[in-house]
Task: inverse folding
């Protein structure tokens, strides 16, 4: 077995036992990147190899003295190009930041580096992370790991493809409107949106209203996902809404599966969501196999939502436009910058003009009502399930799908992100959610399932996802053709 074939937790063990050197690990991954990245464009701003080798030699010298920095000691990592990385360009996929080099790391990057990781570069993302399709004017489009003519999803598309193609052992991502979940599902890996506050962010312009986006882990298996989450999570005084209590020992309790698991399949929300043909059948088949082969007494129920999806969408639009516009507005003080933004970003800003506080306040109240409605579902079920996307991976030359081909006909999309409406429910409720692989289309394209857990139930959700992963080993064995 080659170094790049090792799960990250096994790789960590072999590094610490000195069975494999940090230099060997780095060289193996850099060779893989050199081979595949020109075709898939997942990693950008790659650090010079000679500089990286100096760090790898330093990590080996530390181990020879019996010093370990942590679980990621000597492990290569590329950070999503939205997070600040000291000394390495952080462009956010925007021409405005094409030459920006931060002087300090973000909080999450601090933690990953403190755990011994070697930061080799960044992973590609759409401009300012907007849109679930990874392309931008600086670096171009990232291709799907299973079909380079298709979209990788986004905005953590570069991270998902890098993990799926074994260019990285694990990766970080971030999630606002499915930015972790959609690309994970489309590249046959796992991606977790933790409970809000579980992985604190800093620096940030606003801590108190910007409660929709969060960072989280991506991996090829649940053990690695849990191990990376341990490093990312934990309170920090710089982030006032961060959750108290650090998650520890997650990888040791994954096997402690609940005696039975009751799953509520929300599917297309009682006919509300347009789903491309075969997506629901693929997801249901995977869940049915799990409940019959998993813990005894597990069940899968087809459930109608306790909430009104149309009302939730309107609430979502107000929140998203308000928060997105806040990030864009400072740049538009310079009129010349408007030409540097993609149309979708400008639409978000323009739609927010004239947004009154009373409208936002009402949307906040509606969000609270929606949260209570979601809680009702957990009185009878342990986890809620939805597809990770409403369409299969689409042609990468598109900006976004303008219509969805359902079993009943074509349904037009009225916004650039309407085709991802399925992911807003975990986000608005601040609930932990893991995208798990479900299966493949007839032409070999992957799709995933969102498993939504109870409030702050990150550990329990990981246990359920781990049990589920044991039931889809055949799906996980399907490798990208490049492998």
Result:
């Amino acid at each position: 077995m080659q170094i790049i074939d090792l799960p990250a937790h096994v790789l960590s063990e072999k590094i610490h036992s000195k069975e494999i050197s940090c230099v060997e690990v780095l060289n193996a991954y850099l060779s893989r990147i050199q081979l595949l990245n020109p075709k898939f464009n997942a990693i950008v701003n790659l650090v010079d190899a000679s500089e990286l080798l100096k760090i790898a030699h330093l990590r080996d010298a530390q181990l020879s003295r019996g010093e370990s920095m942590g679980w990621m000691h000597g492990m290569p990592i590329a950070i999503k190009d939205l997070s600040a990385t000291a000394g390495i360009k952080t462009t956010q996929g925007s021409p405005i930041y094409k030459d920006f080099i931060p002087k300090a790391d973000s909080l999450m990057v601090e933690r990953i580096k403190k755990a011994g990781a070697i930061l080799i570069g960044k992973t590609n993302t759409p401009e300012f992370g907007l849109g679930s399709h990874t392309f931008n004017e600086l670096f171009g489009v990232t291709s799907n790991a299973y079909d380079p003519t298709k979209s990788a999803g986004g905005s953590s598309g570069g991270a998902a493809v890098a993990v799926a193609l074994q260019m990285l052992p694990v990766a970080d991502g971030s999630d606002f409107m499915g930015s972790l979940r959609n690309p994970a599902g489309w590249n046959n890996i796992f991606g977790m949106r933790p409970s809000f506050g579980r992985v604190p962010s800093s620096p940030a312009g606003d801590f108190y209203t910007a409660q929709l986006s969060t960072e989280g882990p991506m991996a090829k298996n649940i053990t690695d996902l849990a191990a990376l989450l341990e490093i990312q999570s934990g309170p920090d005084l710089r982030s006032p809404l961060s959750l108290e209590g650090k998650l520890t020992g997650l990888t040791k309790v994954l096997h402690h599966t609940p005696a039975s698991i009751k799953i509520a399949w929300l599917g297309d929300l009682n006919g509300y969501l347009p789903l491309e043909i075969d997506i629901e059948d693929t997801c249901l088949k995977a869940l049915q196999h799990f409940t019959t082969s998993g813990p005894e007494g597990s069940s899968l129920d087809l459930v109608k939502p306790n909430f009104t999806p149309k009302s939730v969408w309107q609430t979502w639009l107000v929140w998203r436009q308000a928060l997105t516009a806040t990030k864009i507005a400072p740049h538009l003080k310079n009129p010349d910058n408007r030409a540097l933004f993609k149309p979708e970003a400008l639409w978000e800003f323009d739609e927010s003009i004239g947004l009154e506080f009373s409208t936002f306040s009402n949307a906040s109240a509606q969000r609270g009502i929606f949260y209570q409605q979601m809680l009702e579902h957990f009185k009878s079920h342990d986890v809620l399930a939805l597809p990770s996307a409403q369409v299969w991976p689409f042609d990468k030359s598109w900006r976004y799908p303008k219509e969805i081909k359902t079993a009943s006909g074509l349904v037009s999309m009225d916004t650039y992100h309407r085709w991802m409406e399925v992911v807003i429910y975990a986000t608005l409720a601040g609930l932990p959610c893991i995208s798990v692989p479900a299966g493949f289309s007839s032409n070999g394209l992957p799709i995933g399932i969102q498993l939504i857990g109870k409030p702050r139930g990150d550990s329990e959700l990981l246990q359920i996802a781990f049990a589920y992963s044991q039931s889809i080993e055949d799906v996980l064995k399907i490798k990208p053709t490049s492998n």
Observations:
- The chain has one domain: 3-476.
